[in-house]
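Key result, reporting period 2: structure in, sequence out.
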């Protein structure tokens, strides 16, 4: 693949998860990242305003962001396994 100003050269064998991921993967990843951002902002606002309930709500939003981000990674791993011809089982045939 030629190197252009828009596309720098990638290491040999590198597969971009963003370019090769499904729309579901991208949505989950962006949603998780957005929840991280909202949780951090809520945490800072709660700390600056001395409002513990806001800070505790921030923890819940951050936790939800982690779960959504993990769901995105699970979707990506399953798609990669399917692309390589695997079924998601171990190499010993599921034993």
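The corresponding designed sequence is given below.
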């Amino acid at each position: 693949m030629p190197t252009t100003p828009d596309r720098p050269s990638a290491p040999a064998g590198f597969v971009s998860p963003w370019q090769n991921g499904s729309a579901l993967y991208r949505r989950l990843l962006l949603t998780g990242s957005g929840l991280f951002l909202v949780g951090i902002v809520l945490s800072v606002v709660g700390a600056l305003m001395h409002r513990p309930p806001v800070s505790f709500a921030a923890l819940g939003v951050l936790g939800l962001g982690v779960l959504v981000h993990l769901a995105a990674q699970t979707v990506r791993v399953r798609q990669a396994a399917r692309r390589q011809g695997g079924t998601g089982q171990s190499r010993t045939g599921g034993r």
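Residues 35-83 form one domain. The mean pLDDT is 84. This case is discussed further under Risks and Mitigation.
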